[in-house]
Write a sequence for this structure.
């Protein structure tokens, strides 16, 4: 690993007073549902059970003023899910905060990395 390669990474976790924690897992679930149009497909791709993914979606839908995911039950016509405009906004703001922390914190990340014990050293 070169000296410029970061060993420390930022994982943004927003904890609200409501029963909502918005972190990398929920953000990734939103992004994959948006790309795949399916909660079950997004869950499969993430190695997560459908039940767990649905619980996370319900948690987000309950916490925000408007739902972040709109879903239709499966059946003859097939189901599906879409990220709502509110969900798109949540994901956009979350990603912007990640970028801000990574960019504004670059000097501090480098300083913390420099303080780490070299890899492989006991």
């Amino acid at each position: 690993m070169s000296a410029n390669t970061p060993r420390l990474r930022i994982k943004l976790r927003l904890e609200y007073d409501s029963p909502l924690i918005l972190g990398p897992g929920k953000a990734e679930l939103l992004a994959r549902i948006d790309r795949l149009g399916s909660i079950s497909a997004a869950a499969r791709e993430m190695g997560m059970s459908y039940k767990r993914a649905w619980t996370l979606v319900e948690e987000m839908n309950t916490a925000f003023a408007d739902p972040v995911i709109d879903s239709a039950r499966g059946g003859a016509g097939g189901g599906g899910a879409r990220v709502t405009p509110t969900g798109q906004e949540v994901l956009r703001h979350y990603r912007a905060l990640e970028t801000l922390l990574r960019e504004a914190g670059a000097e501090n990340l480098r300083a913390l990395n420099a303080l780490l014990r070299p890899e492989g050293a006991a």
About this structure: The CA atoms of residues 16 and 22 lie 8 Å apart.
